């Protein structure tokens, strides 16, 4: 049998890959045209094309229409990964609220670089198409969405969510779904349905401050579990805590977590679900980024492996289509009645018209088309951000390598306090999310979360450079 | 000084009023033309017109364009008022949830008469104008409402709410307002901000089941206070409970309550606020019907008299414009930070685009125009409903006389159980809200709530007649 790399196209691909990995070719460099490849290597056009296809599938290069092939990836972007996190076992409710408000109250201001933003920038969202969808919805939805929607939510939307769930090999019907006013609202109903004051919820660490605040306001203790920047929550730590009977409920971001960017491997998901079933502990699964994968297919969810109805799978279109529409959902498994009651008693129903617009968007090929573009842009941005961080940030800086989403986690040298760095960078109208707000403990002071879901341009690169310089200055103070 | 009734126009008006009150003239009867009045009484056209103006201002007659004057009111519609309610002092959490679901799960079905509906019917709402507003909003709102709104809510909308509050002699600025996803959602944030499990909230009785369910799901005890169908909550009972230190927070529907239809007189509002200030107990004021008054001006709110910031004034456009838009608000007084935190932690923000549409609607004269029509229709319907109940329902039936809103409370003879009546009427596709769901105690079994905010037509009259006949049949069983 002929070894694969002996094929002509593989030989060519290997050469180019080496040049990319060695840094000879850098992100954005134009590659030789197909004709040049044919001439230089003495191969057919088909073979040249196969070589480039192969490199594209490895996300090393990209095609630009009417322009040719370009390098997407380069050696220098491969930053070291942050260490697995290892928070203290006991959560201590330090006061991070003021920091959050400080960062997010500045966010709306004109001219500010919104690296702290929790969603992709407007420029990456299909606003014109959504507006058209609104017009259609006023015609197609009975009463133009002026009347109360059902508590369970728009049926057309729920049928689409069920249809899309096939991509992660889940198989639930529309009547197992309850729509909500965005994903946080879904988490809120689940938490209120499953917990009482004094209970403990286990989460990854670091974790989205929204989830910490929700637990805090409900009087729920948070157990922050050590987590790996690649594979997410540490299952051994989870098992130990379960054995000790410490956990009432879990709340994990299974795919492209916020802020680490980690994605639980399928095997881990399966194992986590099995563990939780063993201890009869429900899992609220926050899967709001799953559709924004950079690999070949959508990662599965924990819900995929749920046989006991213990997983409450939550999602939304806030990170892919329209945060301001407030359209999310939950598939609460065996807790459906409890969650439905929460929605009914706290809200009656969700906004009717925006649900209908999203239903229409999901029904056609528009969502798939949009996602394809969005993934492509976000992955490109991630590589550009990684390169900029490698080029401009202090030596020793580490960054996560998310395989999806729009959020990355950066660990600066220990001496730098990112809250102080924030105070300085905001004077230059550069905002970001300091690491300290992603925990209730005194940790992650030298970390920060960046949103790479912005429109890449020269100003953005200049601002990242400036941020890196400010960080270097902080370092010199010691 | 000449006595007013000596004026010629007053003499004529008195004669016609007598004919109406004696039942000689009945609802819907055509009145003599102005020319006939001039001839019969030997008066000028102006005098005849003044007489009809006077009767119109007393809501006894109405003009129909190109048709003439008609009787709006008749003796037989003056039903006895239900007694002041007097619930037991201790709330007992009976299980009314199944009843509520039974009634409201049927509500959406085609061909059903939705007398149980909690909002005016779609036909009374300005759907076409709101749709136009949506188109405008996609153009005027930055990012077409795709991005997250501020936690506090749409500023343009908050400025309009502040402007409209002048009508009830309140004087707060837009930055004291937080928008919410409808009024129940505002109540939910307030309750979560002010109470903890085991606390007690005082409400009128009977009271909207939504408010009971909210308290129940939060683990808050409900103290149901005796209430008068005209003037609302009994202030003596309130004072006694306050003295006993039984109340942590109050939750009143001050204007055109649900389901009684009562309206606290201004003097009662003032006194209630003074009492609560004395005992330092906050009042969550649900004022979602205040704009739908049938009298000369909008009733004031408790907030009007609030000097300590203890009143959290809640409202929405769910009963006047668009329940499905989920646009409401709260002016939380001194609890602003706490309420803002609840919204931020449970929901992030409200749907952006529907807030903008409502802001546009309130900014122009459209809202005032719409309200004028809505009030006129609702008041007319109330009179027609009252007449139909007097004509068709069992002898001894009593009904409330709301001075605004779209909800009336009907008390049937004691022997009738309205849950059983419901089972029978729903087979004829006639739904209504049985009295039992408006309390946590075993009370109001012979009562029901009707929504008169429907399109009046012959079918509706036939259905009310049928409902009356079914009630009479129930009575005969004993």
TrEMBL record, chains A, B:
Signal peptide: none annotated. Gene3D superfamilies: Aspartate Aminotransferase, domain 1, Type I PLP-dependent aspartate aminotransferase-like (Major domain), Winged helix-like DNA-binding domain superfamily/Winged helix DNA-binding domain. Residues 6-74 form the HTH gntR-type domain. InterPro entries: Aminotransferase_I/II_large, HTH_trans_reg/aminotransferase, PyrdxlP-dep_Trfase, PyrdxlP-dep_Trfase_major, PyrdxlP-dep_Trfase_small, Tscrpt_reg_HTH_GntR, WH-like_DNA-bd_sf, WH_DNA-bd_sf. The keyword DNA-binding applies. Keywords: Aminotransferase, DNA-binding, Pyridoxal phosphate, Transcription, Transcription regulation, Transferase. GO terms for molecular function: DNA binding; DNA-binding transcription factor activity; pyridoxal phosphate binding; transaminase activity. It comes from the Bacteria. The keyword Transcription applies. In the C-terminal section; belongs to the class-I pyridoxal-phosphate-dependent aminotransferase family. This is DNA-binding transcriptional regulator, MocR family, contains an aminotransferase domain.
């Amino acid at each position: 049998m002929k070894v694969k790399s002996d094929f002509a196209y593989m030989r060519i691909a290997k050469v180019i890959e080496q040049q990319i990995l060695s840094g000879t070719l850098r992100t954005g460099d134009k590659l030789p045209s197909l004709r040049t490849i044919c001439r230089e290597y003495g191969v057919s056009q088909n073979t040249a094309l196969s070589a480039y296809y192969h490199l594209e599938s490895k996300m090393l290069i990209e095609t630009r229409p009417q322009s040719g092939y370009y390098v997407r990836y380069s050696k220098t972007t491969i930053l070291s990964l942050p260490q697995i996190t290892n928070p203290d076992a006991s959560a201590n409710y330090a006061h991070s609220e003021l920091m959050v408000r400080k960062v997010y109250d500045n966010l709306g201001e004109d001219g500010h670089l919104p690296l702290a933003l929790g969603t992709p920038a407007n420029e990456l969202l299909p606003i014109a198409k959504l507006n058209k969808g609104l017009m259609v919805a006023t015609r197609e939805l009975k009463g133009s969405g002026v009347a109360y929607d059902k508590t369970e939510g728009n049926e057309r939307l729920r049928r689409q969510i069920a249809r899309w769930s096939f991509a992660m090999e889940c198989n639930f019907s529309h009547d197992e779904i309850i729509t909500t006013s965005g994903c946080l609202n879904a988490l809120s109903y689940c938490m209120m349905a499953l917990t009482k004051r004094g209970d403990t919820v286990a989460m990854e660490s670091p974790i989205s401050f929204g989830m910490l605040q929700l637990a805090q306001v409900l009087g729920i203790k948070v157990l922050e579990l050590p987590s790996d920047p690649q594979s997410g929550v540490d299952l051994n730590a989870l098992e130990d805590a379960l054995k000790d009977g410490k956990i009432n409920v879990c709340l994990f971001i299974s795919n492209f977590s916020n802020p680490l960017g980690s994605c639980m491997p399928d095997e881990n998901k399966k194992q986590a679900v099995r563990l939780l079933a063993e201890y009869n502990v429900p899992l609220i699964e926050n899967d709001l980024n799953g559709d924004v994968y950079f690999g070949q297919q959508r990662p599965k969810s924990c819900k995929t492996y749920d046989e006991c109805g213990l997983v409450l799978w939550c999602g939304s279109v806030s990170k892919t289509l329209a945060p301001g529409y407030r359209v999310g959902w939950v598939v609460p498994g065996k807790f459906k009645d409890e969650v439905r009651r929460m929605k009914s008693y706290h809200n009656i129903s969700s906004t009717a018209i925006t649900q209908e617009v999203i239903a229409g968007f999901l029904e056609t090929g528009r969502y798939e088309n949009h996602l394809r573009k969005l993934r492509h842009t976000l992955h490109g941005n991630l590589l550009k951000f990684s390169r900029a961080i490698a080029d401009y940030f202090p030596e020793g800086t580490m960054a996560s390598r998310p395989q999806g989403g729009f959020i990355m986690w950066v660990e600066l040298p220990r001496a730098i306090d990112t809250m102080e760095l924030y105070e300085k960078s905001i004077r230059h109208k550069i905002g970001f999310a300091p690491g300290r707000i992603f925990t209730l403990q005194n940790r992650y002071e030298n970390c920060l979360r960046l949103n790479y879901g912005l429109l890449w341009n020269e100003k953005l690169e200049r601002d990242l450079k400036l941020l890196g310089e400010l960080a270097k200055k902080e370092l010199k103070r010691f």
